[in-house]
Write a structure and sequence with these properties.
- With 327 residues, the protein is α/β, with parallel strands linked by helices.
- It has two domains: 134 residues, ATPase, nucleotide binding domain (Nucleotidyltransferase, domain 5, 2-Layer Sandwich); 174 residues, Nucleotidyltransferase, domain 5 (2-Layer Sandwich), CATH 3.30.420.40.
- The protein is 39% helix and 22% strand.
- It contains eleven helices and 13 strands.
- A five-stranded mixed β-sheet has the order 3-2-1-4-8.
- Helix 1 crosses helix 2, helix 5 packs antiparallel against helix 8 and helix 8 crosses helix 9.
- It is globular, with a radius of gyration of 20 Å.
- The protein binds zinc ion.
- Zinc ion binds next to loops.
Length: 327
């Protein structure tokens, strides 16, 4: 099915393990309306497909846009794909998604063409098209949250590798014999810098008897520490919290320096909930990058906070659809 070149709008879909969001977007990246549904990840493929279709229809109603005025859909989907064929090869958060056809039933139900990509790559493409990565020749994005997501956009294209597994920079091993990672290996960036690893790091210091305001902030139950508490405590001068960000920034800086040394990008964009700590995290990241990146590559590279927040996924999907439309 062809993208309708005369249509004014595209739809970006962000499929997560919990929610589906579909946004109607114009050609400048403005969001006109949103549809949100639950993704029903554990109920099976057909239910999730229905939820996606509903989200798209609701989004159109909210935006007061008819499906006839939509050129097509771009979707960010967790997992590994054969995106040209509309197939999800594997997606850990969805029950029994092994080599399933995702796009064809959506296209059939809505009468719209659709493209898709890995959710992290699509979010990176959103930052490239409409956010902090705008104008970059080579942009690398890291998302620091529950996990460490990453994406590369090179000369206007997402770089996804031969089996659409790349770049997975969250699973680059940067500390031999480091902590065990969710992927089963040891010392990945994710094992050191993801949300829970940051909380553990702060909690261990408190357990070791260090004085910290995190005790008070968590009502003396260290299980309830949050990154926002660590961030608040650090900004108030709490040594344990400042040190926690220093250590996490050091490891993130190694990961980023490796990306700089391999790819020689002009922009590195850092997003995700943890990045909201701002300079508390960015300052140690920059110091570590300066030590670990090669000088000429470092000189050419800006390290920037992401701009799109939670909109990166839907805007990335929209940008993919627009790229398809213009190709
Ligand atoms: Zn890993």
């Amino acid at each position: 099915m062809q993208f309708n070149k005369d249509a004014k709008y595209v739809i970006g879909v962000d499929l997560g393990g919990t929610n589906v969001r579909a946004a109607v977007v114009d050609r400048t990246g403005r969001i006109l309306g949103d549809g949100r549904t639950s993704s029903r990840a554990m109920d099976g493929l057909e239910y999730t497909i229905e939820q996606i279709i509903d989200a798209v229809r609701i989004g159109c109603v909210e935006a007061s846009v008819r499906l006839d005025d939509v050129a097509g859909i771009g979707m960010g989907v967790p997992g590994t794909h054969k995106s040209e064929e509309g197939i999800v090869v594997w997606s850990p958060n969805f029950k029994d998604w092994n080599n399933v056809q995702l796009l064809a039933p959506i296209t059939d139900a809505l009468g719209l063409p659709a493209v898709m990509g890995n959710d992290a790559n699509v979010a990176a493409f959103g930052e490239y098209a409409f956010g902090a990565g705008s104008g970059a020749k080579i942009m690398v994005m890291f998302t620091i949250g529950t996990g460490i997501g990453s994406g590369i956009v090179m000369n206007g294209r997402s770089f996804v590798g031969v089996t659409e597994t790349a770049p997975e920079m969250g699973h680059h091993i940067i500390l031999a014999a480091g902590p065990r990672c969710g992927c089963g290996r040891y010392g990945c960036v994710e094992s050191l810098c993801r949300r829970d690893a940051i909380i553990d790091r702060a909690a261990r210091k408190a357990h070791a008897g260090r004085h910290t305001s995190l005790l008070e902030k968590s009502n003396h139950d260290l299980r309830y520490i949050t990154p926002a508490m660590i961030s608040e405590a650090a900004s108030e001068g709490d040594e344990v919290s400042i040190e926690t960000f220093e250590e996490v920034g050091y490891y993130m800086g190694i990961a980023i320096a490796n990306a700089i040394n391999i790819l020689n990008p002009d922009k590195i964009v850092i997003g995700g909930g943890i990045a909201q700590a701002g300079d508390l995290l960015f300052a140690p990241i920059r110091r570590s990058v300066e030590v670990n990146a090669l000088y000429t590559a470092l000189q050419a590279c800006q390290i920037l906070p992401a701009q799109l927040g939670d909109d990166a996924g839907v805007l990335g999907g929209a940008a993919m659809a627009l790229q398809k439309l213009e190709s």
